[in-house]
Amino acid sequence: MKTLIILVGIFILLMGTAEILPALGNHKHHNQAALEAGANYFSIAWAHNEIVGLAWGIPLAICGIGTTLYGFKKRKA
Fold this sequence. Notes:
By secondary structure, this protein is mostly helical. It has 2 helices and no strands.
């Protein structure tokens, strides 16, 4: 059971990462021309799908890290 908790935590962490990385890549890809033209990075707006990817991915990754650490703690106790 303790190993299952660790594996579920790792799976959730990877699911969160799978949401975050495409959102960041999409943001970079769509705004590369503006950055090359000299626009300030902080003045570029985020698209809706990029925000949704980060809004889903970051909590998933944090929960995955927490679940994995909890599983390791239960395993050593």
